């Protein structure tokens, strides 16, 4: 009795178990057990086990409550430690809200509508699978945060989130593989804006009558994406054919509102959980914001195009390659007027053969121009899919659409050169060392094991489906070419994701520029298999990968130049 009273007093004094009262039935059961057992001064073994189990359960409950209490105290302590940063956070959030303006409330309402729409899709799909024997599919278990439904939500939210989805798809070093794979399907397609609205933007931007600038503008767009719309036209003064890329109305305000919201969420999360600072969450969001806002400032794209053409001219590539000429007098932040280039994608083998005697030389030229830009140009073209790399009617290689460019650091390029040289010779140990240098995290890496894993990955390149490209490339219709690019992209990204997964298992984290470089190399690998199947693009002496092979490249360019002189 005395012991029981002492235990009761101790429990009453403990603030952690004060409100944890046992169920009355539990008291009755403990009192009755000795009577049921009958006789003897001690409890039977079964009774003793039950009493001990009950005490152990009570201790576990106390530990759990104490852990929660400690976590709450830790969280409170962290907030108190960061109280000095609160004014800066509030100021930052206020400035962001002011810069967002009333558009933020409108986008918030659109966001709720999108969440309800995709949520309805999830509930409908969930109801179909909930009662099946197979159970709930993995892609549904996270609700709207699962890759499939998050991608659908992004597509419903429009331009900003589509671009964000494409960023996720192009950055396997930053995001989980399941999301990178799913966001490969994040299509940037949107219904065209009525020409009357495009015409209004052109008048507002150019500040002069359109018929004084253009002979005509085709009201039917060549292409329409989430951010911009492209129309064919002809200049009045020179009678040159051009394309006009026009930013869709309201897109910039929408981007600013969306990106500010994403920034605010990241800022608050880092404040509440300082450990997120190690992941550079706010830094990543700032990079995304800067990249997206650059993409809607067509003056930046114009600068990228002109820089690339200057590089072509300076290197003596002007008779082998070309970027579209930018007409600055009718280009602004929201309007980009460029020379219209006519040609065929590098996947259209039959058309290429009708334009040049040797498709292999075309590929060699494209490779030399692109590799040279990694070293000698301010930026390199970071999206050389078949829609952006053409053989022009005059036999030159045309580089189109400079909305996505990359800049490579000397350290990354030095490691990349070693990586490419080792890839060319199937030296997987050297490849593993180069990748370890590029993604170094201070961990000790078993280079031999890493090399074996790399060999398994890169041997799968031979299994990529080239026939799909050839079949679709022979169809002149633009939809078929577009479908071909998507298939090509998915296969290559799957291969690159394998490389990232294996590398991360060894503790390596690569810079995003490496992902951009690898993606372009995989595009070129596909073009090689189509246009020059017997050529090894990394071992061919005609191709200049590094500065030490410029003489071989120059000799090859002279040969190509002679072909078209």
From TrEMBL:
Residues 187-433 form the ABC1 atypical kinase-like domain. SUPFAM superfamilies: Protein kinase-like (PK-like). One of its GO terms (cellular component) is plastoglobule. PANTHER family: ABC1 FAMILY PROTEIN (PTHR43173), OS07G0227800 PROTEIN (PTHR43173:SF22). This is ABC1 atypical kinase-like domain-containing protein.
